[in-house]
Design goal:
Length: about 425
């Protein structure tokens, strides 16, 4: 305990030097904590936003092969699917049924490629709350069977306004050319990171353009009450569906391969007939995003090591200067009986205290910054909308990450101070007392 008190006293004797070293460490911890906090909530926020935009956590798509060998996407009858969901007591909050098509929107000679999603908006009240419209309402869309809501960027590109009628060119589900007419009833904020958000229309008219019959659709989305139940629920439902209908295998291919890509490759490579179902989850879709998070965390660790590699050079040089300044003091302590190990401990204690102070200050500053940023409403029209939660930045950092960073900093700081401390411990009392440095 006495050694600790002496080490702490030595730090207070050189306040400016101590503050500078601690500030350097605090800066490094601040940067790393901000990065880790952002990546910690990154996957959670993106998953939540994707689940809302895609209308589900678990997705089932029907794939039918025609007599000519053409692959057709549709669900003709979902009684078996609904029975399986009920029998497995799937904890669903919403079940959505949608049809999508790639279309060309045409207005007064201007064109825009657009994915158009058709849905039953009476059943997707939650989704309507997530989409920010700058003009029009979903009620306007529901009142106009041929209504469509497109993004501001697309509307600006083809110079279309509310109430205008625009042509749409698309293909039916069997691949035949078809044309129709939409009435623009609303304009939405572009929530895509890259522009060109999906357009939304009524499923009845989209099905008509796709030549699907009433009640048919392309994909079912199951929105669960608890997103943490995705994997367990999906596994149970998938295994049950395999006993009822023909299913494409999940998670085929290498572990590094995206499971959705693997399933699509399987569809092309295997010989099959009739109707089969694709089964995927939000976690399958988010696998690529998780890889981005892993890269960011790895980059953060590299930044941490590089920053503290530079800082540790400063720590080593500082303790060498301390050694020169305290040579006679060390000689006196050694002359009155202080052991070499205690001298070494004093230097290492000082280094550890500096690390603790720096980490504490860095964490406090990062926490304050996070709290401030979390209070700012950046809006749902920002290009970074998908990375936020309802327009607010969020940060999440597991406790183990904090202790890991603290451990790395402490070890590096002690390592940087070890050589000067070891040199101090080896000083001979007589030589130290005669020193003129």
């Amino acid at each position: 305990m006495r050694d600790v008190k002496i080490a702490f006293r030595n730090l207070t004797r050189q306040k400016k030097r101590t503050i500078l070293l601690a500030a350097a460490i605090a800066f490094g911890i601040y940067i790393i904590t901000m990065i880790n906090g952002f990546t910690g909530s990154f996957i959670e926020n993106v998953s939540e936003n994707f689940s809302n935009l895609l209308a589900g956590h678990i997705f089932i798509e029907g794939v039918e092969k025609s007599e000519s060998g053409r692959t057709l996407s549709l669900v003709r009858n979902d009684d078996i699917l609904m029975d399986a969901i009920e029998d497995n007591e799937v904890p669903w909050k919403y079940i959505t049924k949608r049809s999508d098509m790639n279309a060309t929107l045409i207005f007064e000679g201007e064109t825009a490629q657009q994915t158009v999603t058709g849905a039953d908006w009476d059943q997707e009240e939650y989704f309507k709350e997530r989409i920010i419209l700058t003009q029009g309402t979903f009620e306007d869309l529901q009142a106009e069977r041929q209504g469509i809501i497109i993004s501001e960027k697309v509307a600006e590109k083809i110079n279309v306004e509310i109430g205008d009628r625009l042509l749409v060119k698309c293909r039916t589900y069997t691949g035949q050319q078809n044309v129709g007419e939409f009435v623009m009833t609303g304009m939405l904020v572009d929530s895509s990171l890259f522009g060109g958000s999906t357009a939304y229309a009524n499923i009845s008219y989209v099905n008509e353009l796709l030549n699907l019959k009433p009640g048919e659709y392309m994909s079912m989305g199951i929105y669960l009450e608890d997103p943490d139940m995705i994997d367990e629920t999906a596994e149970n439902l998938y295994e049950d569906l395999k006993t009822r209908v023909s299913m494409f295998e999940r998670n085929t291919g290498d572990d590094d391969e995206n499971p959705i890509i693997a399933m699509l490759e399987q569809e092309d490579e295997e010989e099959w007939e009739g109707l089969r179902f694709r089964f995927m989850t939000l976690n399958d879709i988010m696998k690529e995003v998780q890889q981005i998070v892993d890269v960011l965390n790895t980059a953060a660790l590299i930044i941490l090591l590089v920053l503290f590699g530079i800082i540790m050079v400063g720590v080593t040089n500082t303790f060498r200067m301390v050694l020169m300044e305290r040579t006679k003091e060390i000689g006196t302590m050694r002359a009155v009986g202080m052991q070499r190990g205690i001298v070494r401990k004093l230097f290492l204690y000082e280094a550890f205290f500096i690390a603790v102070i720096g980490v504490a200050v860095g964490l406090i500053l990062a926490g304050i910054t996070m709290l401030i940023l979390m209070q700012i409403n950046w809006g749902l029209d920002t290009p970074a909308f998908m990375l936020m939660k309802n327009g607010y930045m969020t940060f999440k950092m597991p406790v183990w990450q904090i202790f890991l960073n603290f451990g790395i900093v402490s070890i590096l700081t002690l390592f940087a101070a070890f050589f000067p401390s070891n040199k101090a411990a080896k000083l001979q009392p007589a030589d130290a007392l005669r020193s003129t440095k």
